[in-house]
Amino acid sequence: GDQIYPDTALLDPKLTLTLPWEETLYTALDALSQGLETLWNRHATPVSAAFAVRAVGIVLKSLSVVEKEPDNLRAREQLQQASLLAGFAISQSRTALAHSISYPLTVRYGVPHGLACSFTLPALIKWVQQEKAWIMDVDARILDKATGMLVNYDLYTRIKKYCTIEEAVQCVDEMFTAERSGNFVLSVNSAQLISLLRS
Asked: Is pLDDT of 4 > 90?
């Protein structure tokens, strides 16, 4: 019902100063994932896309600043705003394949949510670009920058602390959730999903 929707969001970057870097990284990557998933989403609208593009741009600009300057309140505030805007975006479109992939990995192996939903993003960006399947126009420079940042954080090595790719492949059947994977702009079968995980 309407009562579960907040009227106000209070963003206080001082409350994030004690958040360890890894958790800061993964929450920012969750916002990035939400933004990108809005842009390759069957339910995308100009409004959700505008929120998503802004959220992605902020994460790409501010995350590296927080990494180098953990006490930079302005950059932390920007990441909070990115998270809020990404939340606005997915409140309209819902998430898609990357999040659908993430849930069994978190439930079975304890992979942190932001890592679980972002480690496939470089492969997904490449796939959507190859198929020219973006629902909304996206500046290729933003996608290149996002891919570069994700590769730089070496998410593959990070996820191996929790599970192997072969263990992830064993969860493939659980990764098809109609309310998430069904929102992805491309149709996906098990073989494609396994190939995506291994790439």
From this structure: no
DSSP class of residue 184?
Answer: B
- pTM for the structure as a whole: 0.94
Express each pLDDT in 18-29 by its tens digit: 999 999 999 999
Q: Give whole-number Cα distances, 88 to 27, 115, 177, 199, in Å.
A: 16, 21, 22, 31
Residue 179: pLDDT band with limits 50, 70, 90:
confident
- DSSP code per residue over 82-114: HHHHHHHHHHHH---HHHHHHHHHHHHH---HH
What is the spatial distance between Cα 62 and Cα 28, in angstroms, rounded to a whole number?
9
End-to-end CA distance of the chain: give it in Å, rounded. 41
Judged by DSSP in three states, 41 sits in strand
Q: Taking each helix axis from N to C terminus, what angle separates 97-109 and 21-39, rounded to the nearest 10 degrees? A: 150
Give the pLDDT band of residue 121 (cuts 50, 70, 90). Answer: very high
Residue of 151, 144, 134, 137 whose CA lies nearest to 185: 134
